[in-house]
Amino acid sequence: MNMTPKEYNRYVARLAKKSPLGKDLLNSFLIGGLICVIGQLISNGLKAASLSEDAVKGLTSASMIFLGSFFTAVGVYDKLAKHGGAGTLVPITGFANSIVSPAMEFKSEGLVLGVGAKMFVIAGPVLVYGITASVLYGVIYYFIKVLGG
Predict the structure, then answer these.
(1) CB atoms within 10 A of CB 105
(2) How many CB atoms lie within 10 A of CB 128?
(3) Is there a contact between 106 and 115 (Cβ–Cβ < 8 Å)?
(4) Element (H, E) at 91
(5) Measured between alpha carbons, how far is 75 from 88 in angstroms, rounded to an integer?
(6) How is 132-143 classified by DSSP, letter by letter?
(7) 96 near 65, Cβ under 8 Å?
(8) pLDDT digits (tens, 9 = 90+) for 61-90
(9) Contact yes or no for 64/92 (Cβ under 8 A)
(10) Could you give the 3-state DSSP secondary structure of residue 11?
(11) Nearest partner of 119 among 82, 72, 81, 84, judged by Cα
């Protein structure tokens, strides 16, 4: 079957399923908003525990990254993203998902060549090193503050 590029584009356009834009936008808004509400609830709970503003910010971010990573690892986040679309990409959990997804996909290749290497492929070394450094810095800072008074 020989088609010109123009004929092929018309053929694809005719067969392509039309996207329900309104429904997709609503789902993105609702699921993205739900993720943000969960983050706000975590933040409010930490504030109610009388933690400092800096501790609340850091622990809320770390909690959301953990939840995004955990739900990606157990296969829930991808199902949520199927319905929520871009609503799952924008919050910090989408960032965690973008790092954990390729790592989980290649875990059968081992910890170094599978999980470690593929984590770097998608998110990029700058992001992984930046997160690792910030977590280590936060832990060290926390212990200095606790031990140093």
Answers:
(1) 13
(2) 16
(3) yes
(4) none
(5) 14
(6) HHHHHHHHHHHH
(7) yes
(8) 999 999 998 998 888 998 998 988 888 887
(9) yes
(10) helix
(11) 72
State how far the alpha carbon of 80 is from the alpha carbons of 71, 76, 130, 140, 145, in Å: 9, 6, 27, 35, 39
How far is the C-alpha of 79 from the C-alpha of 98, rounded, in Å?
A: 14
Quote the Cα angle for 146-52-149, to 5°: 25
**Half-sphere exposure of residue 32, counting CA atoms within 13 Å on the CB side?**
16
Q: Rounded CA gap, 36 and 119, in Å?
A: 25
Quote the tokens at residue 145: 């503050």
| One-letter amino acid of 147 | L
Locate 27 and state its tokens: 């789902």
* pLDDT grade for 149, boundaries at 50, 70 and 90: low
Amino acid in the structure at residue 35: I
The Cα 12–Cα 88 span in angstroms is: 28
Q: Could you tell me which residues come within 8 angstroms of residue 125 by beta carbon, excluding any fewer than 6 positions away?
A: none
In terms of Cβ atoms closer than 10 Å to its own Cβ (0-12, 13-18, 19+), residue 2 is exposed
Amino acid at 98: S
Q: How confident is the model at residue 114 (pLDDT cuts 50, 70, 90)?
A: low
Q: 146 is written with which tokens?
A: 């606790």
